[in-house]
């Protein structure tokens, strides 16, 4: 990005990779021109968790973001009851989702369950009832699309 300004308000900077001189206003530097959100987009995991719950609630018996376990920008906890009646506490962080307990609001630090990139993958591994409900919903949607297309 090159700024055109009055000559007295600019300084020249040489970019090491190209050996080019670029004029920047004195109050600006190349580093300050970068939107920090593009470099390190910190997601609010509680908001992500709420979106996950809304997305798959139709295919489980119960699912809600824990209000008893501390959530932060980098971690949130989701309680889920599968259609089979099994209870899980899920941890959501930048690495993905994983089971951290086998009861609501329970975190067992001795568990070392694998992370799943998506809630769909995690629930698919835990619940045949989820797989069936998800498959049925997908089939109904495809049927509606087919009917609307004719």
Q: What integer value in Å does the Rg equal? A: 24 Å
| Unreliably modeled segments | 1-18, 20-40
Overall 3D form: globular
- Arithmetic mean of pLDDT: 80
Count of helical regions: 4
Structural class: alpha+beta
* Count of strand segments: 6
Largest sheet: 4 strands, antiparallel
Distance between the termini: 50 Å
Classified by CATH, the class of the largest domain is: Alpha Beta
CATH H-tier superfamily of the largest domain:
Hypothetical protein (hspc210)
In what order do the strands lie side by side in the largest sheet? 3-4-5-6
Helix/strand order: EEHHEEEEHH
Tally of distinct domains: 2
CATH topology of the largest domain: copper amine oxidase-like fold
Give the name of the CATH architecture of the largest domain.
2-Layer Sandwich
The fraction of residues in strands falls at 15-25%
Portion of residues in helices? Answer: 25-40%
Give the SSE map.
Layout: E1 10-15, E2 20-25, H1 36-39, H2 45-56, E3 62-65, E4 75-81, E5 87-93, E6 96-101, H3 119-126, H4 128-149
Antiparallel strand pairs: 1-2, 3-4, 4-5, 5-6
How is this structure best described in words?
By secondary structure, the protein is an alpha+beta fold. It has two domains: 7-39, no CATH class; 45-149, copper amine oxidase-like fold (2-Layer Sandwich), CATH 3.30.2280. The protein contains four helices and six strands, in the order E-E-H-H-E-E-E-E-H-H. The protein is globular and about 55 Å long. It comes from Umbra pygmaea. Belongs to the GSKIP family. It holds the Pfam family GSKIP_dom.
């Amino acid at each position: 990005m090159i700024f055109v300004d009055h000559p007295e308000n600019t300084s020249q900077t040489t970019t090491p990779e190209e050996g080019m001189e670029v004029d920047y206003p004195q109050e600006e530097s190349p580093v300050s021109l970068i939107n920090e959100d593009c470099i390190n987009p910190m997601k609010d995991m509680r908001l992500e968790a709420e979106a996950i719950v809304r997305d798959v609630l139709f295919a489980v018996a119960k699912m809600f973001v824990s209000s008893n376990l501390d959530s932060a920008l980098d971690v949130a906890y989701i309680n889920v009851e599968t259609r089979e009646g099994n209870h899980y506490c899920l941890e959501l962080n930048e690495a993905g989702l994983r089971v951290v307990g086998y009861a609501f609001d329970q975190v067992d630090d001795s568990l070392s369950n694998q992370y799943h990139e998506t809630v769909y993958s995690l629930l698919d591994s835990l619940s045949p009832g989820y797989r069936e409900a998800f498959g049925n919903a997908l089939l109904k949607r495809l049927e509606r699309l087919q009917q609307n297309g004719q």
